[in-house]
Amino acid sequence: MARALVARSTFLGGDGRCSSPASQVSPFSHVRIGRPDRRQREISCTATVGTGIAPSSRIESIENDGRVYNFAAGPATLPANVVKKAQQDLYNWQGCGMSIMEMSHRGKEFLSVIQKAEADLRALLAIPDNYEVLFLQGGASTLFSAIPLNLCSPEDTADFIVTGSWGDKAYKEAQKYCKANLAWSGKATKYTSIPSSGSELKLTPGAKFVHVCANETIHGVEFKDWYPAVGEGTILVADMSSNFCSKPVDVSKFGVIYAGAQKNVGPSGVTIAIVRKDLVGGAQPTTPVMLDFKTHADNKSLYNTPPCFAIYMCGLVFEDLLHQGGLEAIARKNNDKAEILYRAIDGSDGFYKCPVEASVRSVMNVPFTMASPEMEAAFVKEAAGKGMVQLKGHRSVGGVRASIYNAMPRAGVEKLVALMKDFQARHQAK
Amino acid sequence: MARALVARSTFLGGDGRCSSPASQVSPFSHVRIGRPDRRQREISCTATVGTGIAPSSRIESIENDGRVYNFAAGPATLPANVVKKAQQDLYNWQGCGMSIMEMSHRGKEFLSVIQKAEADLRALLAIPDNYEVLFLQGGASTLFSAIPLNLCSPEDTADFIVTGSWGDKAYKEAQKYCKANLAWSGKATKYTSIPSSGSELKLTPGAKFVHVCANETIHGVEFKDWYPAVGEGTILVADMSSNFCSKPVDVSKFGVIYAGAQKNVGPSGVTIAIVRKDLVGGAQPTTPVMLDFKTHADNKSLYNTPPCFAIYMCGLVFEDLLHQGGLEAIARKNNDKAEILYRAIDGSDGFYKCPVEASVRSVMNVPFTMASPEMEAAFVKEAAGKGMVQLKGHRSVGGVRASIYNAMPRAGVEKLVALMKDFQARHQAK
């Protein structure tokens, strides 16, 4: 009985285009009401508006229905279709008469959301049954404390392989809760490499765990296929915040994988921990209740009120990743995008430089430098004016940084590379 | 040069009304594009849709453009206009070309959001300058650990006045970090009262702090004007999660006020802590970095990535509360709503019973019982069918519970009371 329904908007009183040069085209995006798979009614509305935005946000060339290419490192761009769906459903989720934000976390509606999110994540990563999936608050920064509190007694040793700023923070925080040992550090070479074999590591026999940060956002170094082999009884722990769900992972290699959502899989506010079940329980007695894996495992992440909206958004992202063909397909797309960008950098005769050792260059975060900070600033500014934003490098290292997570469209990378070539052509002589 | 622009939607292909009895009217809400204060263009689109919802969510009588009256205790109903505004802006926030969910937390756009949220909250509560306002993750349940960790050394005593389940949880968690003393407990009378004078309390001279839970959601007891006087050097700490911003508060009485947002001021995922500045620093050495007030005070809540969307939503709520006239006006509205409901209960000749002592009955959470669990279940079910949902009492106490936070419209309470009277008339003889 479905009837196709299309609404056309008729405008009374001119075309509404603002005469101010500050105006910009912001077409109202296509809206679908109701569940997309049946009985849908569609209304398309378009308006040309002036928005009176402060000058520094003025964007003169807009594509993609007003959307910019957002190269931020986190929070980061989300899939446009996911944001649209969230927008459609925000006021009245599936006809329940309330927003997903307003629902009891113990009601059947939200339970269906969190359960599906978990199920989809398990499918994406092929998570074995002997692992818990926990939706937590507090960011990876809270896991820096929680991991040693849960896995160690204060006398236990834990080895840290520090390939950048985030692994370094994990190492420092762990010192409160265990004997943290620096098994390897890339600091001397400005975090441009990753150990490639166990022989480089100063691992402690009988260490409770070995910690790595799978992808370092600031320096752009990423573990590829190699992870350190750990001894019997030693757990491999990985902070995968910034490459989570960007490629397949053999979860069974790890005791704990954790990830703040706000790089690849959602907005900020939820952190996912995948914990082997035998590692739950036995936390140090002074562990805060909210940092104890057992609290969350026993209550399926509903010990207290979870970050419901963030979990809901992750669920939409996981569903979308499955629709795209899962992580093998996603990894291919990401590798293609990264290759386009790195090829442009390496082929620029030194106009753009990436200091990271080629075999460990991150597919997610691409830092590069130019001849001077002034040149970098000019490039970043020009890119922003052309709808490519957040390219400024991290404040601790400067330079330029393009974060090209799952949701960065290939077209965004191509546009960036086109600008890089054009910018070089205009500035080469200088 | 602003031109008024109105679009009318013309429907091609019938009125689209679904013939299935499961259909419901879900008019698409009024959408405004651009900043509401100038150069706005408005498009109104309406469609009648069927949404194919699972039978248990079917709601047969809808008011308020599809919106139900949601009496959940948290997450809870938000102001409808706030949810609509968030929906309008979700895909493209103020023409920036990205969602508030996708922005760098260190960019000027989000900084403006968090700064305004803080400024508006300071205005609402008249927070003195010598207090920090912190936007945290982890819920009040994390503050149960953080408060003693920040305020006490392990040898210090802290007094707990336990008027319900939440105060009890705070008391139990604190035992890990200090000498927690139970200064008063309402357990013997099933948490239906609050101490009315200091003489009832077993306070410890020299206690580091005295902890209260200002409003207990499960049992419906609320501190009114009286708070325990504390000795020189003793800090008064209050969990105000469930009545935060429902009425004016003299912040200067307290050393710390904390509140999960998801009762009165936002979605779940952010917890607000108002901390007197001299109490920042000096946390126990093993305090996790994310539980140390100093971490967040020093970094204006941006030590790591905060829960950006939740903070944004709180900002919209604070702005709306100011538009409504601030907390004096809000308190009057809340008192009126509560009075309507308690009067209906007390005037029912025992058909509905509220066990809470009249002088401490919560204005936020109204629990009541009926003749039997079966009667309660029938009432809750009938109410749900009439668009009044989430009335089931907390699983630990049963019964019925109407949470009537700031955002519950007076009309919702009136509708509930009308049903109560009608239900009684139909069931009185039984």
TrEMBL record, chains A, B:
One GO cellular component from the entry? cytoplasm
The protein's annotated pathway: Amino-acid biosynthesis; L-serine biosynthesis; L-serine from 3-phospho-D-glycerate: step 2/3
Q: Which domain of life is it from?
A: Eukaryota
Required co-factor(s) are: pyridoxal 5'-phosphate
The chain positions of domain Aminotransferase class V read 68-416
Q: Which residues cross the membrane?
A: none
Q: Which reaction does it catalyse?
A: 4-(phosphooxy)-L-threonine + 2-oxoglutarate = (R)-3-hydroxy-2-oxo-4-phosphooxybutanoate + L-glutamate; O-phospho-L-serine + 2-oxoglutarate = 3-phosphooxypyruvate + L-glutamate
| EC number of the protein | 2.6.1.52
Keywords recorded for this protein, A-Z: Amino-acid biosynthesis, Aminotransferase, Pyridoxal phosphate, Serine biosynthesis, Transferase
One function term, GO molecular function aspect: pyridoxal phosphate binding
Q: Which GO terms describe its biological process?
A: L-serine biosynthetic process
Q: Which family does it belong to?
A: Belongs to the class-V pyridoxal-phosphate-dependent aminotransferase family. SerC subfamily.
Name of the protein described by the UniProt record: Phosphoserine aminotransferase
Organism whose genome encodes this protein? Selaginella moellendorffii (Spikemoss)
Phylogenetic placement of the source organism? Eukaryota, Viridiplantae, Streptophyta, Embryophyta, Tracheophyta
